[in-house]
Amino acid sequence: SATLGVRLDSPEGEVVGTVTMKNAVKIEEYRSVKTRINGAKGVHDLYLCFDEAEGDIRLDWWKFE
Length: 65
Fold this sequence. Notes:
By secondary structure, this protein is mainly β. The chain contains no helices and 3 strands. The protein has a 3-stranded antiparallel beta sheet, with no helix packed on it. A hairpin with a 6-residue loop joins strand 1 and strand 2. The chain is elongated and about 40 Å long.
């Protein structure tokens, strides 16, 4: 499993969202996960940081809605 932190402006920046991802059982097994983003206004660089990871975690794609 892994905790993915959504951070502003640098890998050590303010955390504006987190999501916990579970390990895949099969290599081609994909899951959708969602999180809310709080406190991000204006223009920023966005960093997706695996703050804690154990096992085989693969990020295929991401998007904002």
